[in-house]
Amino acid sequence: MGNKMPPVTFTFLNNTVEGVEGEPVAAALRRAGITELGRSGVDGTPRGAFCFMGSCQECRVRIDGAVAYACKAPVLPNMTVTPYVQS
Amino acid sequence: MSSPDFSPVTVIGGGIAGATSAIALSRHGFPVTLIDEQPVAGGQIFRAPSPYARRVVPPNHEFSGGDTLRQKLAASSVDVRFSTRVWGVSPTLTLDLLGPDGIDQLPAATLVVANGATERFLPFQGWTTPRIIGLAGASILMRNGGTLPGQSVVVAGSGPLLFSVAHQVLELGGRVVAIVDAGHRSDWLRLGAMLSLDPARLTQATSWMLRLRKAGIPIHHRAHISEAQETEAGLLLTVTEMDHPERRHLYAADAAACGYGLKPSTLITRTAGVHHRYDPIGGYLEPVTDNAGRTSRPDLYVTGDAAGVRGMAVARLRGLITAHAIAHDRGVISTETYETLTRTPLRQRRRLEAVSRRMLPLMNAGSAIPAHLQDDTIVCRCERVKAATLRSAIQAGAEDLNQLKAWTRCGMGPCQGRMCEDSARGLLAAACGKTPEEAGSFTARMPFFPLPLTAVTGDFTYSDIPLPKAAPL
Questions:
Q1: Does ipTM come in above 0.90?
Q2: Residue A1 has pLDDT above 50, yes or no
Q3: Residue A56 counted as domain residue
Q4: Does residue B440 contact residue B285 with C-beta atoms inside 8 Å?
Q5: For a tag on chain A, would you pick the N or C end, based on fewer CB atoms within 10 A?
Q6: In order of start, what are the domains of chain B with their CATH numbers?
Q7: Nearest to A55 among B52, B418, B454 (CB)
Q8: How confident is the model at residue B1 (pLDDT cuts 50, 70, 90)?
């Protein structure tokens, strides 16, 4: 409260998403209505953040190319988030 | 009293138990290193709010309690290593770490494991849709992320977290469509009758229940979500009564939060080889500990929820008691001093634990669900293994959890069985007429979570490989 950090933006696929610097990427994405973070490598159905504590591995994305957990990784201005594609 | 042994102590986990223990150990004069995977201390309950959550979540007990704990830790001599995860432990207690600077090893002379609990999940039709999240996950998203799982939420599963999460949804301006609890209403009433032993919990529970009742939210006891279907607008959830499966209730919601209680995190303690037991009431494996957290290894202690789920207030007392026990075991304090220091915490703990133990059956109220899973329900989320595949493997002779894993890949994906172990065990036990304990557990394996190859190689590149000159012909 009283914390007046201006919002920053980042991209997820073709969406420009607004968030507060330092908050978890998955939280900012969810407020923007984005829950699907990728597809299952086994059956191709959507997957998204599930446990929010780094156990389930389902929120893995790439942030500027590097694999990261969307439930933990902090929002930074102008970062590029893409789905992590399981092989 | 032999001469005191001030060799270093390593604490894994910066939650209430671990941080309290680390601070108390440093006051006893031990050099203490505290390892935590989050960027600041607090664990799950006292997790620091995100910059967004600080704006939108009203100040609450968890924020202030967490801030106090973090200040105390910062003022102590404890050497903290944040954003660092333990991905392995050797038989001699050398820890494999992944931190901000890559991988590292840390030999621990004395190890205190305070890595808390993880949530137990049970499957249902359609539960892999991203609109469904864990119950503890929903709490983390809301309290620490200031963000609703959806504008309208069905809260389902078992245990006291149901009512906490429902309350948090209301507090952030969302709508709770229904609360679906696997437990018996009478068990809650019995628990309520005991809450006078724990005034803090009583006050909190009363305010939650009054608010939920005022909001007119339907509560189903002895019920579970049996199916989730994606619709244009969100989710259509089928709620089935466990004792009358023909009685069903349909709810539309943006999202559902679902979790079936907590269980101790045992990967580290199992890999370190301490004795464990299956607690049939909690429905989970826990390390065998005495009342101070001593295990079958004299160099390893377990404290807080990692030694059996008892909740926040008990975790603090346990952390304190474990620290005093180590000081006593290393000859730093006398038996008389130990008894003086622990008399009050042990007494408080006994009182609070009476309530905590009542919560275990409520958290484990979904234990019968895995036996009745529909054949096409996905049990293993990572490998998308369905109940039918598990049942055929069991018919073909898979008799314990590891055999089932080897035959079906259930539990072999990146979560390493954390999401499916309880449901696979329940299904196997029911199908073979075994107890859950006989059905077994997935063998703990390192690394405890997927390691990026770049972390292992570091800055090392191909050109760094020394190539000896070819021998002359």
A1: yes
A2: no
A3: yes
A4: no
A5: C
A6: 9-118+263-360 (3.50.50.60), 121-260 (3.50.50.60), 369-439 (1.10.10.1100)
A7: B418
A8: low
Contacts for B19 with CB less than 8 Å, ≥ 6 apart? B34, B41, B42, B43, B69, B72, B73, B319
Q: Do B51 and A23 touch (CB under 8 A)?
A: yes
Asked if B419 and B380 count as a contact pair (C-beta separation under 8 A), the reply is yes
How far B415 CA sits from the closest chain A CA (Å)? 5
B52 with A46: Cβ contact below 8 A: no
How far, in Å, CA of B324 to CA of B237, rounded? 50
CB contact under 8 A, B384 and A58: no
Evaluate whether residue A76 is within a structural domain. yes
A25 within domain boundaries: yes
Higher pLDDT, B196 or B436: B436
Q: Give one word for A60, left, alpha or beta, with left for phi > 0 and alpha for psi -120 to 50.
A: beta
Instruction: Give me the domain span that covers residue A32.
Output: 8-83
Q: How many structural domains compose chain A?
A: 1
Q: Per the CB < 8 Å rule, is A24 touching B133?
A: no
The rounded distance, in Å, linking the Cα atoms of B323 and B293 is: 9
Domain CATH number, residue A62: 3.10.20.440
Amino acid at B467: L
A with B: how many residue pairs have Cβ under 8 Å apart? 121
Contact flag A57-B413 (C-beta cutoff 8 Å): yes
Q: How confident is the model at residue B227 (pLDDT cuts 50, 70, 90)?
A: very high
Chain B, 52 to 111: residues with Cβ < 8 Å from chain A are 52-55, 59, 85
**Per-residue pLDDT tens for B232-258?**
889 999 999 999 999 999 999 999 999
Q: What is the pLDDT of residues B453-472, one digit of tens each?
A: 877 777 777 788 888 888 88
